[in-house]
Amino acid sequence: MIGFVSGGGLGLKRAGPSVRVRGFLGSSVRASHGAARGVRWFATPPVGATSAAEVKMVATAPQVIPRKIGDVVEDFELVREEFVSEYASQARLWKHKKTGTELLSVLNGDENKTFGIVFRTPPKDSTGVPHILEHSVLCGSRKYPVKEPFVELIKSSLNTFLNAFTFPDKTCYPVASCNEQDFYNLVDVYMDAVLHPAMTPDTLRQEGHHFELDDVDGKMTIKGVVYNEMKGAYSDPERVLAEYSQEAIFPDITYGVESGGHPRDIPDLTWEQFKGFHDNYYHPSNARVWFYGDDDESRRLKKVNEFLQEFEKIDISSSAVPLQERWTEPRTVEHTYDCGSEGDSSNKYMTTLNWMLTPMDQTEPAKILALTVLSQLLLSTSASPLRKALTDSGLGEDIVGGGLETDLRQMSFSVGMKGLTEENVAKVQELIEETLTQLSKEGVPQTLMESCLNTLEFRLRENNTGRFPRGLSLMIASLSTWLHESDPLVPLRFEEPLMKLKERLAAGENVFEDLIKENFLTNPHKAAVTMIPDPKYAEKEEAIEQERIDKVAKAASREDLEEIVEMTQRLKEKQAKPDDPTDLAKIPYLSKDDLDKNMKTVPFEEDQISGATVYHHPLPTSGVVYMDLGMDISGVSMELLPLMSLYTESLTQLGTKKEDFVSLQQRIGRETGGLRPSTYMSQLVAADGNGPVVSMLMIRAKAMSSKTTQTFDLLKDILLEPNFDNKERFRQLVVEEKAGVESGIAPSGHTVAAGRLRSQYRVGDWATEQMEGLAYLDYVKALLERVDNDWEGVLGDLQALHSAVVNRSKLVCNVTTDSDVYPGVKAELKSFLDSLPEKSSLQLPSWIDQAPTPTPANEGFIIPAQVNYVGKAMNLLDAGYKLTGASALASKHLGTSYLWDTVRVQGGAYGGFCRLDMRTGDFLYLSYRDPNVNKTLNSYDGAGAFLKSHDISEEELTKSIIGMIGDMDSYALPDAKGFASMTRKITGETDEIRQERREQVLGATAKDFRDFGEALEATKESGSVVVVGSETSLNAAKEEGLDISLSQPL
């Protein structure tokens, strides 16, 4: 993914397992790094689930021009046509007569149009050639000869998605937009980029690797964007474990190497190999092209044909992914990893058991669906028998492994544990085998089957992909077969496989028991992978890198060194040189006249029911009821505030007085579409950015309208009859919480830095740090000891917290559903609200009154990593600067110009960006997987001067305005629209305020940019710094004069 990584999301709480799609924009694909283990077959989106077979949230398809097989349009021949009823889409497979390129055209009524061009790119080694190419082709092309067309599109388009991904066997270049002209502008730039990139050896040096030397007698280093990105990737133990687990069961084919590139191997990649890989694989004959949405099909074919006409068909058999030969005996693999140089490492072993299953293109869809349900049945919830057996054992801290993997050509299954002692590694492996054996013999409980099947069915039918375009989710699913010369529509069709599975279960067949025997118990293609903690790992890796550098330096003559210095200088000059305005003008973009002058609003009705404020958003949801329940937590004491995160989890994970947590989890899966308590923290809009805190327990639930009664019954049981008195189960939650927070630090150091910085300026953000950040980690460690030594005290705290939170007073409820469904929901809602206690006065002193005054401080947190995450913050409102919509525009421009150039392109970080909080006035600089510390801070300090002196042209200003309006009008599904509307209501962000900011953006001038630069320049000396990174880098930065206090959170 190309190098912007979201700075949003401040918490570390319960970081999920890393996935392994590589790509430019880490924030856009469910995870900042990773591919295979995050993508599910049958286009299953990452959401909660429920029953209700009638869910089908798709738009009505537009008028489709009739075609017949054999028709030729724009040199494309129609070879297949089907109506995919699951997504109300007409799907047509076209084949280009001249090049053989296949194009799948999916026609429906979705305004969020999606395009993707995908190449089969199997690497033969771990030099990262497909990953570096993914970055490099977007660094200028024949038609658009500028340094970063990708960044220009970020600045100037209304895109709803713009990214690129490297998978283990393919590279994808997808875009999406709701504006048709904008959409085809994006398609045009991407097609030219992949087929006609303006790559030179300097492109490989910048994006991949190069030796950097500023002076013949100076210190030589290795730099490169992907090189540093993968250093960061290999600092995440769970991600590394997932990589090694895949390599272990596919040792003889492309899945046995690292497509993203291993830092040890990346410097071995030569220009000839790099260019040759593009020549061999980035050819139309090796491409699959995808279109989805409500645009005209003829325009799709015409646009692609424009690019394909100059190519001839070639043989692409060399890109085919072969099958891994099956083993007759299991294997064992061991690796060491960086566990940090401090503390006890004896309990930091990790292990997985991994099985290779059958090929996707040779397995019946019904069986794949059954395996998908089985994976969920075994692992998806705390009540799942394999997960429960592992966590109940006390052998380790938490489970690892992604379960079923359906994205690669051959399916696989992985499960294990982390936080183990050496002697417990074998015990975990034995326990996995024993549990699977027991399930195969004793059978899977009927209630568990019903819950899991219902959950998956709802996910498939709802197709709620969040901010991820639905069309892109379907494209990735289709590629699991299409990439390997098999039917691309099979993964989109789930009705028949689902019906067959239900019929087999109804007939009493032992479907899941047989699958366990076949795929696990009698399957010899199994690898046990163990990760051994090595406190000296980082030291050894640094030594290996230095040895490589010393070898080059020692063998180089003075002339050779002068050439490296000259190359370094030339590369820096190219990176710093502005693009020719004539070339920039070639990038297509809309005009301001194409922009809607008025903001988008969401219809709502406000009501008072039983003393609670109720918002209803009448939006088309196909009978799904989305409900958000917010209870005020301002009455919680400061001592109990950090317990909120575990308290919210306990509501659904400890059971009730009526049923244990296993039964409760199954009931949630069986009756609802998901039910998730969490905390919500914000503040009221105020001119000084210091408005009163808005803090709530937020329970988000969804269900079919026919299940509304059951959903409210669940909420009553959870809120009115919780059972907190389960010491062993609560202790498990605390152990898992600790492990989750710790594992989230290394891969998400920018969120750690952002949360810590924000906590230094506003009380609400201080509270978030206590409940989710590094302060929370300290609390959880101490809580674990309290559970062991003072359970009665912990139980009393949970009960006191519950008493302070569950209260009808100040309650807010938000319902998003069809207008004709709401009356029935309203009647049920009143009955539910009447059952809740109403307390007129708070029994505890408020944490808001007790919280300390936030104070800026420079902090450095040493973690086991080879890269850094560098943050700096200041509060502009506190400094007297008045924020407008133009301020947000200037901030975005700063991130896509100066910071991109100085921190990423010139500095070698994977990402460099900034964030302006219009509500609080906080302004943050952040970097991601950064080899530098002080150099990056110097770049931050130069940002104000850049904006002050930056004479932005009218054209550049217009592009920035277009991109900003695109952000303001970001595409959202009904549940997200309703929730966002509610949060604006409860925080006082009125439509008038939003419209005023929009007008300020549309009317922004160059002076606004200079004024913002003045504010940054004036506050740079007062800003605070937080760095999360390697011990070597932080100590060096301190020695160079950075005033910072250091600590080790792990």
From TrEMBL:
UniProt keyword annotation of Mitochondrion present: yes
Biological process per Gene Ontology, one example term: protein processing
Alphabetical keyword list: Hydrolase, Metal-binding, Metalloprotease, Mitochondrion, Protease, Zinc
SUPFAM superfamilies reported in the protein's UniProt record: LuxS/MPP-like metallohydrolase
Peptidase M16C associated domain: residues covered: 531-783
Any Pfam family matching the protein: M16C_assoc
Family that this chain belongs to: Belongs to the peptidase M16 family. PreP subfamily.
Protein name per UniProt: Peptidase M16C associated domain-containing protein
UniProt organism field: Rhodosorus marinus
Lineage of producing organism: Eukaryota, Rhodophyta, Stylonematophyceae, Stylonematales, Stylonemataceae
